[in-house]
Amino acid sequence: MKLILAIINRDDAGAVTQNLTRRGFSSTKLATTGGFLMAGNVTILVGVDAEKVQEVIDIIKEHSHSRKQMIPSTMERNYGYCPSVPVEVTVGGATIFVVDIERFERV
């Protein structure tokens, strides 16, 4: 058995979980916060047999999209910091981990 952990943008969470459910996969959704942008993410956990791993990854990839977003940043000047200057960054997509499960029990 494998555990798939997928960290995705919260804007994509509904589509990912709905499509996993439609394809017969159970998932657990956890609200998380990313370190770089301090923005809301979602971590989805899916336990599957090894032969189903690629199918789950394909569903996650299909419904997790990268997008451009403007974020404030600061510029350093000789005499201090200047107020926020917007910078465009790419957010979204998915970070996926596949972990071996040593033991699984449903009680």
Extended strand count: 6
Within the largest sheet, what's the order of strands? 2-3-1-6
Mean pLDDT: 85
* Helical content band: 10-25%
Oligomer status: single chain
Number of helices: 2
Class based on secondary structure composition and strand pairing: alpha+beta
Question: What does the radius of gyration come to?
Answer: 18 Å
Distance between the termini: 17 Å
How would a crystallographer describe the biggest sheet? 4 strands, antiparallel
Coarse morphology: elongated
**Helix and strand string, N-terminal first?**
EHEEHEEE
Task: Describe this structure as you would to a colleague.
- With 107 residues, this protein is of the alpha+beta class.
- The longest helix has 13 residues, at 10-22.
- The relative contact order is 0.29.
- Helix 1 (10-22) packs across helix 2.
- It has 2 helices and 6 strands, in the order βαββαβββ.
- It has helices at 10-22, 53-63, and strands spanning 2-9, 28-33, 40-48, 66-77, 80-92, 94-100.
- Strands 2-3-1-6 form a 4-stranded antiparallel beta sheet. A two-stranded antiparallel ribbon has the order 4-5.
